[in-house]
Amino acid sequence: MSQPSPRSGTDRCPGVFSTHAAADGAVARIRLPGGRIRPDQLEKLAQAAAEHGDGYLELTARGNLQLRGIGDVEAVAEVVVAAGLAPSSSHDMVRNIEVSALTGRIGGVADGWPLADRLDERLRVDDAAAELSGRFLFGIDDGRGDVLRRGPDVCALLHDGEGDTLRADIVVGGAPLGSATGLDAIVSALLEVAHAVLEIAPGAWRIADLSDEQRGDLELRIRATLGPVIGGAIPDPGDPIVGWFDQDDGQVLLGAVVELGRLPARLGEFVAAVGAPIIVTPDREIILCDLDEGVAETVVRVLAPMGLIFDANSPWARVSCCVGAPGCAKSHAPVREDLLEYVDGGVEIDTREHWVGCDRGCGAPSEPHVRVEADPQGGYRTQRR
After folding, report:
1. Coil, strand, or helix at residue 248?
2. What is the three-class DSSP state of 191?
3. What is the pLDDT of residue 350?
4. Residue 121 is inside which H or E element, if any?
5. Is the pLDDT of residue 149 over 50?
6. Cα separation, 291 vs 271, whole angstroms
7. Which ranges of 154-264 does DSSP label H, i.e. alpha helix?
8. What is the pTM of this model?
């Protein structure tokens, strides 16, 4: 029987009320279920980053936002709470929900947002869920496979229907265990997996931490509550969501990236001023939704010169990095500076790369990629992950 993955110490994943002390100051992570954020909320965070942080909003590998170099943690927490982005201190770090970024607008077998909203509502009032690790991940995949490929701990893979007729397979640690029908039944199944993990393996961060025996117990328990697996082919995820896209309703959706996955506070305020729904994806893309053509043209004309990149062929659509030195005391190299020099050299990047300053690999994509890792001797080595 295999043993759970060893974990040293407690989960130090940062939140709003429990920040991480980095070499460049405190780090706060703001969970955005499904990556959604309103324009007024983004504006407030951008102002907080300018006034109390390093002047940037970092895009994370889970579609969240992060502030670094914070000098006044309490002031930032007050801004986040006032913006409605941290409903409670007890559930601040457990609202980890990834949703197909284009769901309800372009493609997909069903709209995943009503399910995401219901899950977030119930998660925030679930006392037991407050004990989940800040790394435990819920997923809602609208059938296109984009969320499933990132390996959430438990995922609702949608098939068809809406509301009470919505059907989904419940996938746990990559294995489909059965199906549920209706918004409430699907949400209950997702939460039941979380509850079972807490009971079977207290202290486990993720499904991957369970031993074979614990995994078997979990699967038996969950299968007994579900209907048969629906199954069916899952399409391969598409290209980066960067550029101009026509929504199913005839409106326009714009996808963009920024250098180093860092949104300057001033640019963030301009993005917020567009007044459109905003989604941050786990691929560190910024999506502006529901635009008419005239507004979309203006957005590109004004914001592209400011640093918002709408070109899917840009290296920044495929490369990301950790903070590196001097922001991280454990880093062997100034990763951001080195990556900027690498990209400015005109090298062609045709696969996903992630640059890191040490073997912890912070911020790495969950899908296959090339890791470029700094070594203590001052060089970099590459490895396909």
Report:
1. coil
2. helix
3. 87
4. helix 113-124
5. yes
6. 13
7. 183-200, 212-223
8. 0.94
